[in-house]
C-alpha cells in the first residue's frame, strides 16, 4: 500500500468514525428528549409519528436533528462511494415515477388505513395490469410508502407515508404539483437554457418548451382551475411549514420604529401578513395591493376588529405605485418570482411614490454562501432556486445580489442589510430611500443584523448558531 493510499484510508476511516460517533450522540439526545416529553419514536407504521414533534423553543434538539440528518447522509454517501452515488443519482427520477403513480392512481385511497389489499384487487380498482401496479408500488415501498404484510405475500398495508397520502390534503397537492405539473417541465430546463441562454423572460422557460405554447406559468395555471387550486393548496402548505411563519416578520424592529405609520403590502394577496402585523402593532395602518381578482372581496375576510386599519387596493406592481406617503413598502415573496430585469422595474415603479427615509422591506429567501447552512437547509433553498428558473426564469438571491438589485434600480436606494430570526427560513431585506445620501448601513432598524459586511458568512453562521441578535 502506498503512503498516499494509507493516509487517505486513515483520514476517510477517521471521518467515518467521527460521523458514526456524532450520529450515535445525536440519536441518543433525540431519543432522550422524546422519552422525557412522553412522545413516541418515529416509525414507518401506519399510525407512527410522521414527524419529530420537537418544540420550536427546544433549539438544541432541533439542531441535533439537522446534524443527524446531515451526518447520516454524509456517512451514507461516503459508504456508497462517489461512483455508485453518481450512478444512482442519475436514476433518482424513478423515485418520482413511483410516487407519481401512487398519487395519480390514488392508491392510498383504495383500502382503509387499518386494512390490506392484494395486488390483484389493486389492479382491478386502478384498471391496471397487475404486474404494472405491483412494480410501481413495490418501487414506492423502497421509500417506505406502503409495505407488504409480513408473511402474506402480494398483500400490502399502509405505512406512515401512505397514511399521509390519504389524509393530508395539503401534502397530496404538493405531491401532485411536483409530479404532475412540474416533473416533465423540469426535464426541459437545460433545453430552455440552450435555446434562450441569457433570457430574463418568463415566457422563455422550460414550461414553454414542454408544452409548445407561449403561456407563462401563471397563465398556464389560470387556464386549468384544478391545477391552480392544487398549486394554491400546495403553496399554502409550504408557507405554513416551519420557519415560514409571518410571526418572524413581525419580530423585525422596523415595525416598532414607525409608530403610527403606514405600510403598503405590495402583492399582499388577501392580506394575511398584514393581519399578523396589525395585531402585533395596533398603531399601524395597512394598504394591501394585489391584482383585481385577488383583492376583490378580500376586505370582508379581514377580522372585523382590524378592518378599519387594513384596506385593499387593486394595483399592478408593473405600473407606478399610487400610494405616495407610506413609511414601509413590504414585498413578501414577490421578487423571487421575477428575474432581475423585472425586479428592477418593480422597484423603479416605486421611486415617484417614495418619501425620504421610506423603507423597503423584502421578506424573501436569501441564498446562503455554500457550506454556511446545513446541507439539508441549503438544499431546500437551492431547490427553490431551481424551480424558479424552470418555471418563471426568476431566482433566489444572495445578500450581494439583493444589494446590487437595489443599486441597479437606482443608486438612491440605500441597501441596509438582511436579517432573520434563527428559526426563520425567510429573511427581511431592508433598504431605505435616500435621495440626499444621508443614510448608511448603520441605519438599519435597530436590532436587525447587518448581512452585508465582509464578515457576512460569519454573521450568517452566527445567526444559525445563536439566533437573532
Ligand atoms: C407568491 S405570492 C405572495 C403573496 C403574499 N405576499 C405572501 O406573502 O404570501 C405573489 C403575489 O403576487 C401577486 N401578483 C402577481 N403579479 C402581480 C402584479 N403584476 N401586480 C400585483 N400583484 C401581483 C399574486 O397575485 C400573488 O398574490
From TrEMBL:
Origin: domain of life: Eukaryota
Domain O-methyltransferase C-terminal: 261-409
UniProt keyword list: Methyltransferase, S-adenosyl-L-methionine, Transferase
Repressor keyword on record: no
Signal in keyword set: no
PROSITE patterns: SAM_OMT_II (PS51683)
Leader sequence residues: none
CDD domains: AdoMet_MTases
Designated name of the protein: O-methyltransferase C-terminal domain-containing protein
Species of origin: Coniosporium apollinis
